[in-house]
Amino acid sequence: MIRRFAAAATLALIATTSVADAADYVIDSQGAHASIIFRVKHLGFSWLVGRFDKFDGTFSYDEKDPGASKVAVNIDTSSLSSNHAERDKHLRSGDFLDVIKFPKASFVSKTVTPKDGGKATIVGDLTLHGVTKPVTIEAAYIGGGADPWGGFRQGFEGSAKIVLADFGMTHDLGPASKDVMLELNIEGLKK
Amino acid sequence: MRSGVETDMAFNDTAANYGSVSRWLHWIMAAAIFGLFGLGWWMVELTYYSPYYKSAPDLHRSVGIVVLALLLFRMLWRTINPKPDDSDLSPFERKASHWVHWSFYPLILLLCISGYLISTPDGNPISVFGLFDVPSLIQSKGLEDTAGWIHWGTAYMTVALAIGHSAAAIKHHFSGQSRVLTRMWSGRA
């Protein structure tokens, strides 16, 4: 009896572990345990920080084979916020994101190259302002496991640099402000 | 009460003429609105490194708040004063001029409010010439976009209406049919 129970428990454990190993996750944008932050140098004197409040996405992650991971994110460009209404209006306008014409931005990973220490280089296609270009994200695994409410989560951070002009945004903000740094905080809830 | 000839020293409007308060309000607001239109049209195209990039919008917001204050006072002033006679106009002209005059109030009100809502839905106040702040009353993310479209549309409508209004006044003046223009300018019909 005990032996049979132990066998069943072992099987159950294997089953759970294998599911946990390669699984699909929904980015927890609903619970706002994820954020997409951008930074642009202001005149070369400081960082101006803003973010996109509305986005959704999914990723697959396998601890045993992180190179097989995939990630896809959709961003509502009009949800931009830099804590300044007039600037946000300007950034949504035709001078920058042109959100009426291009209401969505997206990122779809193509390759994930694992590195030491839970890090990885993710290359994928970023579509922004109607332009699709490859972008490299330097990602790092932060942690994962069962949450206290019956779910299972994995979390990452990532950063990327994009050049505004590459995506057809040429409104001149000065020589120090041609690049935008993206900071990504992604927590996924297992489907 | 005065009777007979009204002088331009009278503050109040009468059945015949506009008093000095109405006339000053009319011309100051006309100048301010056309000035704000030109300033707004010009400032949105300024480059980031233009020396006016900050001062032009500051001036626009400040004058805009003054226009709003003048408008509110003017609406009050209109209701507590008699409307000067316009019986020298044809029934059609009278109807059209009433429509134009009464369109200005809601249109300029909407113009001012929408402008205010471009700058304040993030909770930030509008500083009026650096002298005092008009606080943010409505905080709503993204409201600045809607307000921006309304501001843009009502600005063009106001200027179009003002041009039509001026054209009519000039026509009446030079046709000799009515003295509405001199009445608004000097107070004497």
Describe the structure.
The complex is a heterodimer of chains A (191) and B (189). Chain A is mainly beta and 191 residues long. Chain A has two helices and eleven strands. Chain A has helices at residues 2-21, 85-92; strands at 22-27, 35-42, 46-52, 55-62, 70-76, 80-81, 104-114, 119-128, 131-146, 152-163, 179-190. Chain B is mostly helical and 189 residues long. Helix content of chain B is 63%, strand content 3%. Chain B has helices at residues 20-43, 55-80, 91-119, 143-175, 180-186; strands at residues 126-128, 132-134. In chain B, strands 1-2 form a two-stranded antiparallel sheet. In chain B, strand 1 and strand 2 form a beta hairpin. The two termini of chain B are 19 Å apart.
For the biggest β-sheet of chain A, the strand order reads 1-4-5-7-8-9-10-11
Q: What's the overall average pLDDT of chain B, rounded?
A: 92
Number of helices of chain B: 5
Number of strands of chain B: 2
In whole angstroms, how far apart are the ends of chain B?
Answer: 19 Å
